[in-house]
Write a structure and sequence with these properties.
By secondary structure, the chain is mostly beta strands. The protein has a 17-stranded antiparallel β-sheet that branches. The chain has a 3-stranded antiparallel β-sheet with strand order 22-21-28, with no helix packed on it. Strand 1 (about 5) and strand 2 (about 10-20) form a beta hairpin. It is built from 1 helix and 28 strands.
């Protein structure tokens, strides 16, 4: 049996071993049981498969300095994270060996194993976050090298209440934090009113993708003011120099179902550095308005759609 030398000892391997230019192992696939001693305990790398959710053995990867980078685990393993205990199937690490991301589940979705199948294995976790204890099913949690929580990604369908500078907001998909603990962003679970330099905006992004909670549509600056927001339920009236008047409204597009139905496109707003930046179409550039020269006013807006708050469900 072939083996490779790592700072964690010799690892029995199968298949291709990737290496850095210096010769250090970049990634390898364990051929049998291999134990890695980490600050979070002795962790056993995945080396077996099953017929449904783990049909292949995932490789262990390393940083160029030899430290673990990603470690798929043979079985759910309880570790102590900076936010509390978690049972994980995949852990990633910073070059200094500290925990970067922890994933409670690591099944491979396929025609034989669906998101619903994987979701039945997800269990609620209670973790200490910068905004207080949160209990929910999670896809993953991200930490800074010093242990500060940077983000958490919620399981699809999970909603948690989050205290924010704009009040208590219901969040889905993800929540992110600055290294000092201040709230950086969250994904609104439904249209919710938030204050901005333009006035009250109904924050909600129906295009939000629930893959990672690191960056979300509702963002907050270091001072707690709204720095970024998406909406389909607010329009912006802008009055500028030389009696220049502009109106920004969320646009529309054909439904992804392709059946002639129309659906709204979220309008993006950003604030900072004395500017307001507005984008009404994904493919268009940003309009930049100096707040010292322009007066902005937010007003309620609603097009005539069958489902103004979300995408139409396709029957096919």
């Amino acid at each position: 049996m072939d083996t490779v030398s790592t700072p964690y000892g010799r690892v029995p391997v199968t298949g291709v071993v990737e290496r850095f230019g210096c010769g250090a192992v970049r990634s390898c696939t364990p051929a049998c049981a291999a134990i890695f001693e980490t600050p979070y305990g002795a962790l056993e790398a995945q080396h077996s498969t099953d017929d449904l959710r783990r049909r292949t053995v995932q490789a262990v990867s390393f940083h160029e300095n030899g430290a673990l980078r990603a470690l798929p685990l043979e079985k759910p393993t309880r570790i102590e994270t900076p936010a509390g205990p978690m049972s994980v199937e995949l852990a990633t690490f910073h070059p200094d060996g500290s925990l970067c991301r922890a994933f409670p589940l690591n099944g491979k979705l396929s025609g034989y194993w669906t998101q619903e199948d994987e979701g039945r294995l997800a269990r609620p976790l209670e973790l200490a976050t910068p905004v207080g204890a949160i209990r929910a099913r999670l896809i993953g949690v991200c930490f800074a090298p010093g242990g500060a929580m940077l983000s958490l990604t919620l399981w699809p369908g999970e909603v948690v209440d989050v205290p924010t500078p704009a009040g208590l907001l219901a969040a889905r998909i993800g929540i992110s934090f600055r290294p000092g603990g201040r709230l950086r962003s969250l994904e609104p679970a439904r249209p919710q009113a938030v204050p901005t330099p333009a006035g009250i905006v109904q924050a909600y992004d129906l295009d939000a993708v629930g893959i990672c909670g690191d960056v979300n549509s509702l963002g907050f600056g270091p001072d707690g003011t709204v720095s970024r927001v998406s909406t389909t339920l607010t329009r912006i009236l802008a009055s500028g120099p030389h009696e220049d008047e502009r109106t920004y409204v969320p646009q529309e597009r054909e439904s992804l179902c392709g059946d002639g139905e129309r659906e709204p496109v979220p309008m993006r707003l950003e604030f900072g550095g004395g500017l307001a930046r507005i984008k009404t179409r994904t493919e268009d550039g940003w309009d930049e308005l100096e707040l010292s020269a322009w007066t902005l006013r937010a007003e309620p807006f609603l097009r005539e759609f069958g489902r103004p708050f979300g995408r139409l469900g396709c029957a096919c």
